[in-house]
Amino acid sequence: MGFLFLILAAVVVVHYYLWRRLVRAATRPGSRTRRILTWAVVVLAALLVLTVAGGRLFGMEIERVVAWPGYLWLAIMFYLFVFGLLMEIPRAVAGLVLRRRGRTGAAEEADAAPVAATAAASASASRIGPAGGGTVAAPDAPLHEGDPASREGDKAGGPLVDRRLFVSRTAAAIVGAGALATVGYGMRTALGDPVVERVPIRLPRLGPELAGLRVAVVSDIHLGPLSGRGHTERIVRMINGLRPDVVTIVGDLVDGTVAELGELATPLMDLHAPFGSFFVTGNHEYYTAGGPQEWIEELRSFGVHPLRNERVTIGRGGASLELAGVNDLNGRASGDGPDLDKALGGRDPSRPVVLLAHQPLQVEEAAARGVDLQLSGHTHGGQMAPFNLLVPLQQPVVAGLARFPRAGGGDTQIYVTRGAGFWGPPVRVGAPPEITLIELHPQAG
């Protein structure tokens, strides 16, 4: 309930901001346009709440109905908010210029008022009849722009108000165009083919017989209401085309139960690698109604081997390495969390260790236990910039290769893949989907 409350609060605050900047400031009070746009904002806010909460409260069938419009609006709303914030500075500058011009005009009108009053008095005097016998009525004269009545007219929609409306409408048009263009670009990126990142990594304890070992890494596939079987088939086809020796799926495979999404996952049985395919849980496996266990059994039936705080040995010729995997940190709440001691205890210290751990956050513990390389996902590379600037608040690496001091000397390397799918909006900006091919080599020298 705490999560849903935070979502609701954020939705209300952002939509109120958008209403003030894009509706209230850009339309006239009481206008039909303002009423229509206000109701549109209310309906879209309700749609967003239903989209985020619908799966939990009503199941996958309702989520499938609202997911496309709801998540698309989430992306558009986010970038309307971002571009709106960026426009605050030029909007403030324009407002300052208008106010200064208004004050200058008022001062000029005030200076001209005595002259106009004298001229009016002279004209009136010239119309006084002979011997003071009454006055001749002058025709109605237009109000001077500096008069109070004229200022009231400005407030009701005069030139100053029109200029402010023009500025607000121009800003709203820029914000809207920027948001729609960004979301359109992000959809094309998210729904297109993942980028293949080829990353050579040297491990100091790797035997020469394993030189060139190819490890395919994929994470955050996120099978769910917006993905189809074709999403999985494409990923499997691309991985097999890389001819890997090992395939690793580093968590967040699904956003639903086996009953809801099992058909979408079946192409995984077509993965081919001489040393096998392996899987570790991500946080989203623990959000599903059935928990991770049903998916673990389903993957086993596909020939994908879960590593549940355990490890296997991969060898060729006289050389070998340890491939270990740990459960995600979110499993702790149900007693199914990571256990690095169990996964790594009792190993041969002469062999290099590659650890599969969904969240990069676990790298410091891995380094303390002498792990050579950790493979992770979880971050999506930020998925929609500028979220990439916020990821470091929770994770030590956003994407790519990094190093951390290792117990006993040297470094623990970590590679964080951006993931092959998306969560929520089918939009990726600044973080294209990724399939990674790690090529391992012995340490030079």
Name of the CATH first level of the largest domain: Alpha Beta
CATH fold field value of the largest domain: Purple Acid Phosphatase, chain A, domain 2
Domain module tally: 2
Overall mean pLDDT = 87
Largest sheet: 6 strands, mixed
Count of discrete alpha- or pi-helical segments spanning 4 or more residues: 11
Helix content: 40-55%
Beta-strand content estimate: 15-25%
Our measurement of the CA-to-CA distance between the termini, rounded to an integer number of angstroms, reads 56 Å
Provide the succession of SSEs.
HHHHHHEEHEHEHEEEHEHEEEE
Q: Return the CATH architecture of the largest domain.
A: 4-Layer Sandwich
CA-atom Rg in angstroms? 33 Å
DSSP summary, beta strand count: 12
Notes on the protein architecture:
- The chain is of the alpha/beta class.
- It has two domains: 1-113 and 149-191, no CATH class; 195-442, 4-Layer Sandwich (Purple Acid Phosphatase, chain A, domain 2), CATH 3.60.21.
- It is 45% helix and 16% strand.
- It is built from eleven helices and twelve strands.
- Strands 1-12-2-3-4-5 form a six-stranded mixed β-sheet. A six-stranded mixed β-sheet has the order 6-7-8-9-11-10.
- Helix 9 (293-302) links the parallel strand 4 (277-280) and strand 5.
- The longest helix is centred in the first third of the chain and has 39 residues, at 88-126.
- It starts with a helix and ends with a strand.
